[in-house]
Amino acid sequence: SKKRDGKNGALLYDPLLQDNTRQRAEIERDIEAGLENDWLDAFFQPIVDLSTGIVKGYEALLRLDHPEKGIMAPAEIIRVAEETGAIIRVGNRMLEKALSNLVQLTNATGNDKTYLAINFSPLQFEQTLPIRFAALTSRHGIAANRIVIEITEATLLHDNPQIRTILDEFARYGCRIALDDFGTGYSSLSYLNSFPVDIVKIDQSFIRSLVADAPDLRHKSRMLVEGITAISHKMECTVVAEGIETEAQRDVLTQFGVDCGQGYFFARPQPVQHLVDLEDIHETARSSVA
Ligand code: C2E
Ligand code: MG
Ligand code: MG
Ligand code: MG
């Protein structure tokens, strides 16, 4: 129960606040333990060409495999890491994992055409990032043109000239830039105009409402997705829809000319070893037919 000081009602003790503080401290400890004990990993989620069903690439998504809590999703981990500054070490570790997993998958499948999309926090965008990144990809023997840099408008928000320089440097190496969670921010369209964006990822909230029960919402979100796709194509961007969970959503998006899709309908984010095993199964199936 809350205790207030009699005079001005100021909050002296707020159990909810204390819970949050405790929870945050626990996540901080999980992050440090995760770095220390190598519990961080990059899961891969396939990104599929909607008209052919072919896997064009993967998105690397952070997971923390905690021995007691199991596999922890990234949203809170990233948020806390951004607050404490641990995001730099988490981001660097994630890059290592993502690239070495891509090498493992490439070696297992023999397919060196698929791309890998990696999420970056605004705090990671400092001057030395591109050069460090280039060194890392070349050490792993990965062509820079297989890498997509995923950023949200939070990275572009302040129209900082340094951000532009960093993006241009990535582009010069041959990396592509994806604007993530498109449509949820304040002035998304202007970013297409002023930054070197190659890929637009339509936020999953729009994809969800494509099949909403309310006809009005359904209609409007369809108009929006169709419009965003048309504008993106005019700006020579590839369009990826996030969070596709049903065949109905896939069909509508295909009809609107959306290029690629990602979502549980196709595959969940998973450890790279699962994707390798899956490839082995296909390989066995193919060779037993031959
Ligand atoms: P995001 O970059 O927009 O990633 C897509 C999110 O949608 C992922 O959540 C993915 O698991 C989820 N998703 C994919 N398909 C479906 C679907 O069909 N239905 C639903 N409901 N969800 C789907 P996840 O893995 O929990 O990641 C959440 C967010 O955390 C990411 O959103 C990204 O913003 C951030 N994040 C993840 N990994 C990293 C990282 O390595 N670095 C940074 N800075 N952020 C990361
Ligand atoms: Mg992303
Ligand atoms: Mg997204
Ligand atoms: Mg998101």
From TrEMBL:
Keyword tags: Membrane, Transmembrane, Transmembrane helix
Domain EAL: from-to ranges: 24-283
GO BP annotations listed: signal transduction
Any single Gene Ontology cellular-component annotation: membrane
Superkingdom, taxonomy of origin: Bacteria
This protein's name: EAL domain-containing protein
Taxonomic source organism: Rhizobium daejeonense
Upper classification of the organism: Bacteria, Pseudomonadati, Pseudomonadota, Alphaproteobacteria, Hyphomicrobiales
